[in-house]
Amino acid sequence: MSTVYLEHITPAWNEFSKYVHVLHNEDDYEKAVSLLDSLVDMVGENESHPLASLMELVSVLIENYEDAYVPAL
Fold it and tell me: Radius of gyration of the chain from Cα atoms?
């Protein structure tokens, strides 16, 4: 990957990572759940929606956090 490419995506990543990143604590988790709720409202079951992939990514981040930190019932 070229440095030029990274220079182009860095500003976008800096903005994106304010909202979507590895969840490290309960505050991160709660924000991710809120984001997922909003995405579900917008995307629904439309797999071709432009935000469907983002919804899936946020779901995976939440699932990983729950597997690591939330005790099973």
Answer: 14
Please list the pLDDT of the chain residue by residue as tens digits (73 residues): 577 778 888 898 889 999 999 999 999 999 999 999 999 999 999 999 999 999 999 999 999 999 999 988 7
Name the pTM for this structure. Answer: 0.86
The two structure tokens encoding residue 46: 């439309």
Q: Residues 55, 43: contact at Cβ < 8 Å? A: yes
Residue ranges of the domains in the chain? 21-73
What DSSP letter does each residue of 16-57 carry, written as one string?
Answer: HTTTSS---SHHHHHHHHHHHHHHHHHHTT-TTSTTHHHHHH
Closest CA to 32 of 41, 45, 23: 23
